[in-house]
């Protein structure tokens, strides 16, 4: 069965420090991969997506992610975190075929220290 | 317009009430979704409409009744809910192929007393 794991439930970084959020997936075919961010009580905002091509993907708000097929990973990075980046981050896999669905990871909560 | 709107933002209802949640998008998307999200959890898929037809029902109790009047609108009718149904209800839309990115609304915070 398809699954998405985010090994870190909660990460705390200092403002200005670099960030990497991990995401691993289990899916037989070529995955369609996404990172979403959710501020408290809000909807989900798409940060970036990977469908094919260049494995390093640039997104909004200075985020990037790298697809590594050999490691079944799609880790999210940011070189310098801002206090406003504190939020919940979800990795997701989009499923091809007739069934329309995403598989979401459990999420990683990011706290930012001043 | 890349926005999905949801009304109301907050809803408090008793277990005997009937209420509806509304969702609207004007991006020309032909797939629309309802998700339920509990605190500190990822969204859980409830229903998917594709070309205004119900294509997925994730074994949701019948006290939740979805409706898609047209390609831009999605409703969720609520009746005889339980306190454990209290959650953030999110609407999303996308192009109909399942792998496309979904655009989410801000959600309706539902409290069942």
How many strand elements of chain B?
11
Mean pLDDT of chain A: 91
Radius of gyration of chain B: 13 Å
Note the main sheet of chain A.
6 strands, mixed
Low-confidence sequence ranges of chain B: none
The helix-strand sequence of chain B is EEEEEEEEEEE
* Total DSSP helices of chain B: 0
Overall geometry of chain B comes to globular
Mean pLDDT figure of chain B: 93
- What is Rg of chain A? 14 Å
Counting helices, strands and paired strands, the structural category of chain A is mainly beta
Biggest sheet of chain B, open or closed, and with what strands and sense? 7 strands, mixed
Share in β-strands of chain A: over 45%
Strand content of chain B: over 45%
- Please report the total strand number of chain A as a whole number: 12
Outline of the structure:
With 114 residues, chain A is mainly beta.
Question: Can you put this structure into words, describing what you see?
Answer:
The complex is a heterodimer of chains A (114) and B (113). With 114 residues, chain A is mainly beta. Chain A is 0% helix and 52% strand. Chain A contains no helices and twelve strands. Chain A starts with a strand and ends with a strand. The model of chain A has no long low-confidence stretch (mean pLDDT 91). Chain B is globular and about 35 Å long. In chain B, 36% of the residues are buried. Chain B starts with a strand and ends with a strand. Chain B has strands at 4-7, 10-13, 18-25, 31-37, 44-50, 53-57, 64-70, 73-79, 87-94, 103-104, 108-112. Chain B is mainly beta.
């Amino acid at each position: 069965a398809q699954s998405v794991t985010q090994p870190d439930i909660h990460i705390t970084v200092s403002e200005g420090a670099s960030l990497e959020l991990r995401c691993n997936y289990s899916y037989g075919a070529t995955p369609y991969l996404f990172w979403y961010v959710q501020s408290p009580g809000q909807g989900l905002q798409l940060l970036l997506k990977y469908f094919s091509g260049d494995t390093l993907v640039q997104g909004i708000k200075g985020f990037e992610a790298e697809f590594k097929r050999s490691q079944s990973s799609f880790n999210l990075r940011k070189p310098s975190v801002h206090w406003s980046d504190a939020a919940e981050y979800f990795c997701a896999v989009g499923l091809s075929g007739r069934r329309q669905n995403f598989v979401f990871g459990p999420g990683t909560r990011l706290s930012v220290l001043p | 317009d890349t926005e999905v709107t949801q009304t109301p933002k907050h809803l408090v209802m008793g277990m005997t009430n009937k209420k509806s949640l509304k969702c609207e998008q004007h991006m020309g998307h032909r797939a629309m979704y309802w998700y339920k999200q509990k605190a500190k959890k990822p969204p859980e898929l409830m229903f998917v409409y594709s070309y205004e037809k119900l294509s997925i029902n994730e074994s949701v109790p019948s006290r939740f009744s979805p409706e898609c009047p047209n390609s831009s609108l999605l409703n969720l009718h609520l009746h005889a809910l339980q306190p454990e149904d209290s959650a953030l209800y999110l609407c999303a839309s996308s192009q109909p192929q399942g792998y496309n990115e979904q655009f989410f609304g801000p959600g309706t915070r539902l409290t069942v007393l």
